[in-house]
């Protein structure tokens, strides 16, 4: 998936697939898909998947849907190819909105440090999406359980919770500013949000350095509810972007990890397990030390602890393991107890899926 998302042509994808490391030999040298002679077969398997799927929104806006690596366990961005085709189609005066998943600390950081290096594209504006409810949680609101009605703190006005939680939004804005790109905050408004809460979020966002902060009503009224956001983005895009990467890829692997931990997450330092250190030594010896870093970290906190909301400080970020995606072109450290499996339910959905053989109707998919 990461190879598909970062490739820019059929030939480039073939090269990336061939570079995938599947093992190390007895002398410690990497064994690749090319060594096994399967590069051609892999390319045939992926020859149609490389083509982005053209879809549309409910209001008829063209959308490319292509690739889906998670931002907590991979780089979390849609494909380079989809972006480049979209830019070609909209022309010089057009706008392409591309998603970087799971917050400024992981999705956006990886968009800049990994995807922009691969694509060579320079972003004009960051649109940072915030909700009053999420900020209330970062301000100390009660835990939320899927399927259980929200507690009154989230459905009634609570200015203090919003104010306390805006520290997280301010930190996310600061992370974006590390890369020199103007930030527009889109406050995704829901029916339980009050005018005072929305105004407070916008005010504190602008005070933290956002180019603008705009209430958006697309949830309730569709595209016309976000016209103000579009105008703010257009204005921000007219400013000169001073885009820069966070680190030089030629730095040692440990220093690149430390830079992300301290500058982006706010950690005091990192702590490498013996396994992580030995993997770093091995990858460096194998010639992979100059690759960018893709941190596998929880999306529920700036730290490695999902329950630590707001802006945790002075914590030591534990690196339990380090792995390599050589075809995609990055090293990925595992932070804390992070699992690299997607968040699947304990009881698989296939138990509920069946086919009515009389009507051929599929049951239990949704």
From TrEMBL:
Pathway: One-carbon metabolism; tetrahydrofolate interconversion. The keyword Cell inner membrane does not apply. It is an enzyme of class 6 (ligase). InterPro entries: Formate_THF_ligase, Formate_THF_ligase_CS, P-loop_NTPase. One of its GO terms (biological process) is tetrahydrofolate interconversion. Keywords: ATP-binding, Ligase, Nucleotide-binding, One-carbon metabolism. GO terms for molecular function: ATP binding; formate-tetrahydrofolate ligase activity. Its EC number is 6.3.4.3. This is formate--tetrahydrofolate ligase. It comes from Microcebus murinus. The gene is MTHFD1L.
């Amino acid at each position: 998936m990461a190879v598909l998302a970062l490739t820019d042509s059929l030939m480039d994808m073939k090269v990336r697939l061939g570079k995938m490391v599947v093992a190390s030999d007895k002398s410690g040298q990497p064994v690749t898909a090319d060594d096994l002679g399967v590069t051609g077969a892999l390319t045939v398997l992926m020859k149609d998947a490389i083509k982005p799927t053209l879809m549309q929104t409910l209001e008829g806006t063209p959308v490319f849907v292509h690739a889906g690596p998670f931002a907590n366990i991979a780089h979390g961005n849609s494909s380079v190819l989809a972006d480049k085709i979209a830019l070609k189609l909209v022309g010089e005066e057009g706008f392409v909105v591309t998603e970087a998943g799971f917050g400024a600390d992981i999705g956006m950081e990886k968009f800049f440090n990994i995807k922009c290096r691969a694509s060579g594209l320079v972003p004009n504006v960051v649109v940072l999406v915030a909700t009053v409810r999420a900020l209330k949680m970062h301000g100390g609101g009660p835990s939320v359980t899927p399927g259980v009605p929200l507690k009154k703190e989230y459905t009634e006005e609570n200015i203090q919770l919003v104010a306390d939680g805006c520290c997280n939004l301010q930190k996310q804005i600061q992370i974006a500013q590390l890369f020199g790109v103007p930030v527009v905050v889109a406050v995704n408004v829901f029916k339980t949000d009050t005018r005072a809460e929305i105004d407070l979020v916008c005010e504190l966002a602008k005070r933290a350095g956002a180019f603008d902060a705009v209430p958006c009503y697309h949830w309730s009224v569709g595209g016309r509810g976000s016209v103000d956001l579009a105008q703010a983005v257009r204005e921000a895009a007219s400013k000169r972007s001073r885009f820069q990467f966070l680190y030089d890829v030629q730095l040692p692997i440990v220093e690149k990890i430390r830079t992300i931990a301290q500058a982006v997450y706010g950690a005091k330092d990192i702590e490498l397990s013996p396994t992580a250190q030995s993997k770093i030594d091995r990858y460096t010896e194998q010639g992979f030390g100059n690759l960018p870093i893709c941190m596998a970290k929880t999306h529920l906190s700036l730290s490695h602890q999902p329950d630590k909301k707001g802006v945790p400080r002075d914590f030591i970020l534990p690196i339990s393991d380090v792995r390599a995606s050589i075809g995609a072109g990055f090293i990925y450290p595992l932070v804390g107890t992070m699992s690299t499996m997607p968040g699947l339910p304990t009881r698989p959905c296939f138990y509920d899926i069946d086919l009515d053989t009389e009507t051929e109707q599929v049951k239990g998919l949704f």
